[in-house]
Amino acid sequence: MNPLLIASLIGFPLLFTALLIMQRLTPRPIPGWATHPMKQLPSLITLGLVAAVCGCNPAPRITVKNDSPHTLSNLVVSGSGFSERLPTLEPNGQHRWTIKPSGESGLGLRFDAAQRTVDSGKQGYFEPQGGYRVEAVIHPDLNVSVTAKTSWF
Questions:
Q1: Which of 60, 81, 107, 132 has the fewest CB atoms within 10 Å, measured from its CB?
Q2: Measured between alpha carbons, how far is 11 from 74 in angstroms, rounded to an integer?
Q3: Residue 12: which residues within 8 A CB-CB, separation 6 or more?
Q4: Cβ distance 147 to 134 under 8 Å?
Q5: What whole-number distance in Å separates Cα of residue 56 and Cα of residue 60?
Q6: Is 117 exposed, middle or buried (0-12, 13-18, 19+ CB in 10 A)?
Q7: 109 contacts: CB under 8 Å, gap ≥ 6
Q8: Helix (H) or strand (E) holding 47
């Protein structure tokens, strides 16, 4: 099961319970008295926790590595809702960037090398969020392998 899903199922009820407890423990101002800024602290803590939880869900990071002895030209990487043409990739070179797919996706590569065109077809699986790290490796025989892992960082 996806670690993010597990964290959501456990974290949101805990966050909601903590919010209720903080609301009960927050002193209420006496009518006519000025509200002290420290009384806003529980709300700021809650806002910080929500921002932290939402921030731990980065977009997929794609890495394309050329482990072949050939220069790759006309390299196009595509998936659900995105297609990007990469610069020529020399042997032992790599290119890394972040994408925003429109939904669940696989990764496809199409390129020219060794006087032929290679189309890998869609491989792997990743989602728009979840901290996926996707790596596509072009091997010496020009076969392509795609691996996708989730990562919090």
A1: 81
A2: 45
A3: none
A4: yes
A5: 12
A6: exposed
A7: 64, 75, 76, 77, 118, 119, 120, 136, 138, 144
A8: helix 41-55
41-54: pLDDT as tens digits:
566 566 566 555 55
CA-to-CA separations, 46 to 26, 42, 50, 135, 137, in angstroms, rounded? 13, 6, 6, 36, 42
Cβ–Cβ < 8 Å for 35, 101: no
In this structure, the strands spanning 105-113 and 116-119 are: antiparallel
Four-way CATH pick for 61-150: 3.30.70, 2.60.120, 2.60.40, 2.30.30: 2.60.40
Q: What's the alpha-carbon Rg for the chain, to the nearest Å?
A: 23
Q: What is the mean pLDDT of residues 124-128?
A: 93
On the question of pLDDT at 125 being above 70, the answer is yes
- Helices 41-55 & 3-25 angle (0-180, nearest 10): 180
